[in-house]
Amino acid sequence: MSFDQLMPIFLSSKASTVSPDLPFRFTGGFAMSSKAEGVLMLAQGLYSMFAQAVIFPNLAKRFGCLNIFKTTVILWPLLYLLVPFTVLLPRSYRLLGICFCLLWRTTAQALTYPPNNIMLTNSAPSMLVLGAINGVAGSTASLCRAFGPTITGFIHSKGLGIGVSGLSWWITGLVCILGAAESLLMEEPKLSDSNTDLIDEEAINDFTMINPLSIDAAIVAARREEHHDADGDSKTPEDRLHPGTESAT
Predict the structure, then answer these.
(1) 43, 73, 125, 199: which is deepest, by most CB within 10 A?
(2) pTM
(3) What is the pLDDT of residues 177-188, one digit of tens each?
């Protein structure tokens, strides 16, 4: 979210005329036109479709969702730490550097979002609370989309004021480091046979509250009772209750 906000600003910012004071005090961007940015975003979107449809399924089949998620999240902070330094590359290598960063980011996104959703679903203790879990997760993501760009935009403006254009990138990278450390504590849930039976039972109770076979059996029994009553109308109630009385008499 912060990346999507900061990258267009970084690409469209004017090139700096001030000599950088390494390692951290430097400003400027790539001075790209809106047309050039649009082409990059288009290529990023097309590659994102390919990564999610081809790269992620094959890697997930081989290494598992959790391993892919951990590896990608651990490497993600490096991206935020390196992006600002691409402006210091020689002019002939700058476009290559920014394309490499966009490729890295798009691949990382394709390898973290699907596993996150899959593991969130698998971690639900019951199918009956799956909707609530997904609702809370969606609300939290929306909250981050609302406040993330606002906070990083404020930090970016403060960084430009002190001559450090990479301040917002590096602070975001520190937040990613915290997320990477948290990911090391994650474990993939394992469903036992009893849990699987419980989930199946809950699904049956939730989606088929009335068994159609029970309804058919009840209809057949009612018809048989009606037919039996029609055949025995000549008998008295006592005879129906005690069918052996008539034969005894």
Answers:
(1) 73
(2) 0.71
(3) 999 998 998 887
